Structures are given as C-alpha cells and as structure tokens.
Amino acid sequence: MRKVVGLILLLVLVASLVSGVLLIHPFGHPDASDMDDYIIENAQEETGSNNVVAAVLFDYRGLDTLGEATILFTAVMGVLLLVRTLKRKEESS
Amino acid sequence: MLSKIVRTVANQLILFIIVFGLYVITHGHITPGGGFQGGAVIVSGVVMLLVAFSSQELKKSLRERVLSIMESTGALIFAILAFAGIGTAFFYNFLVGTPIFGRIPATGPGPGDIWTGGVIPLMNFAVGLKVIAGLSAVVLAIALFSSGEEVEE
Fold first, then answer.
1. Which of A49, A92, B9, B77 satisfies CB 3.0 to 4.6 Å to B117 for a cystine?
2. What domain range is B114 assigned to?
C-alpha cells in the first residue's frame, strides 16, 4: 500500500517537474527580455535605488543573496572548525 | 614582522583603505559596489596589516570572539530586514516612501541621493559587517595556524 502511494506521489512529482521544464521561460534567449525590461523600467520607482544591480541583488532576488550570505557563514564556520580540530590533534599526538 | 618603513606605511594606509571600503559599502545603492565588495576592500587592508605586522601582533587587537559576534550580528540584521517585509512578501522593500531611506529618484540616469533605496543600504551594511568579520576571522585563523600559534577561542 505504501509503495503504491509512494509511486503515485513520485509520478505526480515527476509530471509536475517535467511540465515545469517544458513551460519554462526560454533561458538566456536574447528575445525573451520581458523580465529585464520590467526591471529596467520599474526598479528605480519600486525600490528607490539608482543602482539597478543592487536593486536586483537585495530586493528582487533577495533570497539569492541570503543564500550567498549563508554560504559565507558556512565557509567561515568550516575554516574555524577545521583549524581548531587540526590544532587539537597536533597537541594530542 | 617586516621592517619599520613597511610598518609605518601600512599604519598610514589602513585608514584610507577603511574609509574607501566604508564608502563602497554606504554608496552601494547609488554607485557600483555594495556590502560584499566594500567588505572585501577592508579585509584586504587587514591582510596588509597581517603581512606588515605578525599574526601574533594582530591577534591582540582583533579578537576572534568579537569577530564571530560581529558576523552573527550582520547575518541577524539581514534576516530580520528580510522578514520585516513579510506582510507583503519575503524581501519586500517596506521602507520605500517612508522618511527613512525612502526617497524615490527620477527614472533614468542621475547623480543619486543617499536617502534612497529603502532597505537596500541597510542590507548592504549588514552584509558588509558580515563579510568584514567573517573574512578577517578566516584570514587571521589561517595565519595563526600556519605560524604554529594557539588559535584564540
């Protein structure tokens, strides 16, 4: 029973993902510029920022910047943990 | 530790480097730049101090605990600002139109006004704080480790 339900859920997930891929905005295509046009037209009015790149980074794609900050946080944490562990290992040996 | 000439020049230059980095951070919503770039500029100054003086000398003024607290504070401010606009959407710019950083510039190229951008300058500050503290901590920890010194808690 659980396997059947899992299979059905998997099929639904695969179907939705495939349909999403098929319906996706043409990626990197020079003709598909409606998103760029919208941001260039409205960024200054909507965010008040003269630097449209900053407006995209911190407003329209803020989630991306949050991920970037998290990557930095994790990297710093990893380096500090690694350096301390190596130090302790050296002492004990 | 390098010679006295190098140390004196580094001592004079660090002020200008910090001022330029703060300029890049605070004007992130007007001119090219922002929190990441300005923070990297200031950390390059820290690296210069690390080369001119020894890591043991720098350890006395840059405590790793303080740097960790600074970095966490930056991350916290960033997340709080992101959640503050959740009434409309995550990362909604709720300060546009209010007296704080709320002026709206004319569409098109312009000289820019520091009181614009809504939450963008505040987020630049938070990210700048985070980058300065985080990268300084990493550089200092690696330098202390390679010199065989005890890494401060």
1. A49
2. 4-146
